[in-house]
Design goal:
It is a single chain. About 0% of the residues lie in helices and about 55% in strands. The protein has about 120 residues and is an all-beta fold. Strands 2, 4, 5, 6, 9, 10 and 11 form a 7-stranded mixed sheet that branches. It has a 4-stranded antiparallel sheet with strand order 1-3-8-7, with no helix packed on it. The radius of gyration is 13 Å and the shape is globular.
């Protein structure tokens, strides 16, 4: 059974940082593209970025230069480092697994809340 479990959410402090983690199990993590998607209150889901099995990274324009995705294949874990946070960063963040260019599995999501 595929499982993706996010952790590390918290309050958005403008200019601050947060790191989300996603522990994966039930599939061959090291050969799987992983991505992050978020959904802000009242808005649709937004793809944030992805990291391929060869460690190539891609990001949405809205977060490029502020967010970094990394992976540790020894721990079957993918990370989302969020720096220079903005109030609009508040959202539920989802870890996803990607197969053949399509999201095949979703985590339950982790809340990142606006502190204002």
């Amino acid at each position: 059974e595929v499982q993706l479990v996010e952790s590390g959410g918290g309050l958005v402090q403008p200019g601050g940082s947060l790191r989300l983690s996603c522990a994966a199990s039930g599939f061959t993590f090291s050969t799987t593209t992983m991505s992050w998607v978020r959904q802000a209150p009242g808005k649709g889901r937004e793809w944030i970025g992805a990291i391929y099995s060869d460690f190539r990274e891609y990001y949405a324009k809205s977060v490029k230069g502020r967010f970094t995705i990394s992976r540790d294949n020894a721990k079957n874990t993918v990370y989302l480092q969020m720096d220079n946070l903005k109030p609009e960063s508040a959202a539920v963040y989802y870890c996803t697994a990607v197969e053949d260019g399509i999201i095949s599995s979703w985590g339950r999501g982790m809340q990142v809340t606006d502190s204002s």
